[in-house]
Design brief:
This protein has helices at about 5-10, 15, 25-40, 40-55, 70-90, 95-115, 120-130, 130-145, 150-160, 165-180, 185-205, 215-240, 245-265, 275-280, 280-310, 315-330, 355-385, 390-410, 415-440, 445-475, 500-525, and strands at about 340-345, 475-485, 485-500. The protein has about 525 residues and is mostly helical. Helix 12 (about 215-240) runs antiparallel to helix 13 (about 245-265), helix 19 runs antiparallel to helix 20 (about 445-475) and helix 20 (about 445-475) runs antiparallel to helix 21 (about 500-525). The radius of gyration is 24 Å and the shape is globular.
C-alpha cells in the first residue's frame, strides 16, 4: 500500500524537502497568508460577478435568461477541472500549477473586462474558473510545506480564508456595483491577481514532492466530461425541463461517463486516481458527507440573499396597482383612482427587506463570515488536538438545526442574520474538517486528485441543493388577485417571488440532508485521533 514520504522516512532538512521545519513563525505564517490570500480570488469573484449580473445583462441583450451562464460556466468548468489540475499538481508541482491557475485567471479577467462579445466573455469566464482549483492545490501545498504541527491549523485557515472574499468581497463588490461599470469588477480582480502572482512566486517555496507518472489523459477526460455534463443538467434542468429528453441526455451522458471512469481506471497501469483509495472509507465516506452537507451550503447562501434583497409585499402590491391603472388607461383611455383597484397576494409572503448588496453584506453576511473565519482557525487547533471527526459532527449538527430554524422562524432580515451567524460556526468547522480528513486519509502522492474529488462533491452538492430547492420554489409562486371596482379581472404570477412555503420546504430538505450526513460522520471510523499533518495513512 502506498504511504506518504513523511510516513516512511524522517523529515528531511527544510532546504531539501521544501518543508519549513526550523523556519521562524513569521516566515511560516507569511507563506500561509500568501497561499490563502491567493485562493480567495475565486470566491471573491463569485460574490462580485453575481452582484453585477443585472448590470452585465444589457451588454449582451440577445442572451436573455442565458446571462446566468456567466455564473454557471464558472462553477461547472471549475468543478470539472479541479481533479485534473489537482492531479497535474501531484505530477508537475503544486506551486507551478498554482501560478498557472493565476495566470489563466488574469487572462480571463482581461478578456471579460474589454469584450462585448458573448462567446469571448464566456471564454474569459472559463479561464477564470481555473482559480477554483487553487483551493484544492493549497491543501497540498500546506501539507507539504507547513511543519506538521501547523498543518491542521493551516488547513483550517485556508478553508475559510482571511476575510478578503467573505467580508471585503461583498463590501467592495457592493460599492463597485453601485458606483461604477460592471467592467470595473474585472479590472479590480485583475489588479488583485497582478499583485498576488509575484508574491506567490517570491514568498511561497515549491513542494519537492512529486508523483512519478504520466498523466492519465483518458481517465482525466472521462472524469472531467462526466462531471461537466452532470453539473450542466443540475444547473439548467429547471430552465430546460427536468424530464425533457433533450435535458435528460446531459444527465444520462454524464452519469455514463462517470460510471465508465472507475472501470477504465481499474485497468490502466497509472490511473489518475487509485480506485482502491477512492472507495476506501477514509475517502468515500468523506466525499459522501461533503455531497450532502453542500446541499445546505449552496442553498443557504442563495436563499438568504434572495429573501432579504426581495421587495416587501406592500411594495409589490402597490406596483401591481399602478401597473393595472396604467394598463387600463392605455387600453380604454380611462384614468382610475388607486382605491378603485384592489390587489391581494395569494399566497402572500412574509420575507422581503429590499436590502442592497451592500446592505446584505453589512447586515447579514458580515457576522456569518467573521464567525466562520474564527471557527475555521479554532477548528484547526481542535483538529490538531483530537482529530477532525468531532468538529465535523458539530458542524453537521449545527447545519441541521439552523436549516430547520430558517424554515420555522420569522423570515425578516434580523432573524435570518442571527440564524446565519450561528450557521457561520458550522461553515467554518465543516471547511476545516473535510480537507484535514482527506489529508489524513490519503498518501502525499494522491493529495491533489483526492482534494479535487472533494471539490467536485462540494460543487455537485451545492448544485443539487439549489436545483431541488428551486423546484420547491417554482411549485409555490406568488400570484396577484386583481379586482377593479369590486369585480375580479385577472390573476397574475409575480415573477421572481415565491411563497414562504417554497423556501421553507427547501430548508427542510437541506436539514434532512445534513442529518443524513451527520449519521455518516457518527459512524465514520477515522478522524478520531489527533491530526498528524499527513502521516497517519
Amino acid at each position: 500500500m502506498s504511504t506518504s514520504l513523511e510516513a516512511t522516512t524522517p523529515p528531511e532538512p527544510a532546504d531539501l524537502s521544501g518543508r519549513l521545519d526550523g523556519a521562524s513563525k513569521l516566515r511560516i505564517f507569511t507563506v500561509l497568508a500568501v497561499i490563502v490570500l491567493f485562493t480567495e480570488v475565486a470566491p471573491m469573484q463569485f460574490v462580485m460577478v453575481s452582484a453585477a449580473l443585472r448590470q452585465i445583462a444589457p451588454t449582451f441583450p440577445d442572451q436573455g435568461a442565458n446571462i446566468n451562464w456567466a455564473i454557471i460556466i464558472f462553477g461547472v468548468i471549475g468543478a470539472a477541472a479541479s481533479p485534473l489540475i489537482g492531479k497535474m499538481s501531484d505530477i508537475w508541482g503544486k506551486k507551478r500549477m498554482f501560478l498557472l491557475c493565476g495566470a489563466l485567471f488574469l487572462i480571463g479577467c482581461a478578456i471579460c473586462a474589454i469584450t462585448s462579445n458573448w462567446m469571448l466573455f464566456l471564454l474569459g469566464r472559463g479561464l477564470q474558473a481555473t482559480a477554483i482549483a487553487t483551493a484544492i492545490i493549497s491543501y497540498g501545498l500546506i501539507r507539504d510545506l507547513m511543519p506538521r504541527k501547523y498543518v491542521p491549523i493551516g488547513l483550517g485557515v485556508a478553508s475559510t480564508g482571511l476575510g478578503v472574499s467573505a467580508v471585503a468581497g461583498p463590501l467592495i463588490g457592493g460599492y463597485i456595483v453601485d458606483h461604477h461599470s460592471w467592467r470595473a469588477i474585472f479590472w479590480f480582480l485583475f489588479v488583485f491577481t497582478v499583485i498576488m502572482i509575484p508574491l506567490v512566486a517570491l514568498i511561497v517555496p515549491e513542494s519537492r514532492l512529486r508523483t512519478p507518472q504520466r498523466l492519465d489523459v483518458v481517465g482525466a477526460v472521462l472524469l472531467a466530461a462526466g462531471a461537466t455534463l452532470t453539473l450542466i443538467y443540475l444547473d439548467k434542468g429547471q430552465d430546460w425541463g427536468w424530464a425533457k429528453p433533450s435535458t435528460l441526455v446531459w444527465l444520462i451522458g454524464g452519469l455514463l461517463l462517470l460510471a465508465v471512469f472507475p472501470l477504465v481506471e481499474l485497468r490502466v497501469r497509472q490511473p489518475i486516481m487509485d480506485m482502491k483509495l477512492l472507495f476506501n472509507p477514509r475517502v468515500s465516506v468523506v466525499l459522501f458527507i461533503a455531497l450532502l452537507a453542500s446541499f445546505m451550503i449552496g442553498y443557504q447562501g442563495y436563499a438568504a440573499g434572495y429573501m432579504t434583497q426581495s421587495p416587501p409585499a406592500s411594495e409589490v402590491t402597490a406596483g401591481v396597482v399602478q401597473g393595472t391603472i396604467a394598463e387600463i388607461q392605455a387600453r380604454t383611455g380611462q384614468t382610475l383612482p388607486a382605491q378603485a383597484v384592489q390587489v391581494s397576494l395569494d399566497p402572500g409572503y412574509t420575507y422581503g427587506d429590499n436590502l442592497s448588496l451592500l446592505g446584505f453584506a453589512v447586515n447579514v453576511t458580515l457576522a456569518q463570515a467573521v464567525i466562520g473565519m474564527i471557527a475555521g482557525l479554532l477548528g484547526g487547533f481542535w483538529i490538531r488536538r483530537s482529530g477532525a471527526r468531532s468538529p465535523l459532527i458539530l458542524a453537521l449538527g449545527v447545519m441541521a438545526v439552523t436549516a430547520t430554524a430558517l424554515g420555522l422562524f420569522e423570515h425578516s432580515w434580523p432573524v435570518i442574520a442571527l440564524i446565519s451567524a450561528v450557521y457561520g460556526l458550522a461553515f467554518g468547522l465543516y471547511y476545516a474538517s473535510t480537507p484535514n480528513l482527506i489529508v489524513e486519509g490519503v498518501p502525499a502522492e494522491q493529495q491533489g486528485i483526492s482534494a479535487g474529488m472533494l471539490g467536485v462533491m462540494n460543487s455537485m452538492g451545492a448544485a443539487i441543493g439549489i436545483a431541488v430547492a428551486t423546484a420547491f420554489l417554482n411549485a409555490n409562486p406568488v400570484r396577484a388577485e386583481i379586482s377593479v371596482a369590486g369585480n375580479h379581472v385577472a390573476t397574475k404570477d409575480i415573477p421572481l417571488l415565491f411563497a414562504d412555503r417554497g423556501y421553507e420546504l427547501g430548508f427542510y430538505f437541506v436539514a434532512v440532508a445534513a442529518a443524513v450526513a451527520l449519521a455518516g460522520a457518527l459512524v465514520m471510523k477515522h478522524g478520531r485521533t489527533a491530526a498528524t499533518g499527513g502521516t497517519a495513512f
